[in-house]
Amino acid sequence: MSIQPGITERNEPNPGVVTYDLDTTATREVRHGVRQALGRYRGLAVDDAVLVADELVSNAHQHGEAPRACRLELTHRGSLRIEVDDASPRQPRRRTPDGSGGRGLMLIDRLASAWGVRNHADHKTVWVELALNREGNHAPHLSAARTWHNED
What we know:
Elements: E1 2-3, E2 6-7, E3 13-14, E4 18-21, H1 27-37, H2 44-63, E5 69-74, E6 79-86, H3 104-111, E7 114-119, E8 124-131
Antiparallel strand pairs: 1-4, 2-3, 4-5, 5-6, 6-8, 7-8
């Protein structure tokens, strides 16, 4: 892991970008880094961010090619931005879930505020933004729980 200065949308230095070399860093360290970055947050926002980061990193290992990297950044808009680079030209694609997988992008799509892919000459970046300030501390995809009545 390294902390490298980045550039904000306003072209100001951003020392808060944490970068991981995914070819030498265990996925559990990235999950731990997400929890550290979100230290002041609690609940589903953190759980969702850890799940999304884990899914992105796992997808890069399973479907991507080296070199691989991951960046975490808290934005000025109150969200966590996760970016994962890999050198494979293959694009992420949704598929019908089955016993071998296919749920990752579906989860990311439901949990993220926004996500997409940026293609570069020698690699691609899959990026996700997750809103951290959720009203009622529940994800927007979850409805309020129903009251269950036992009819016995």
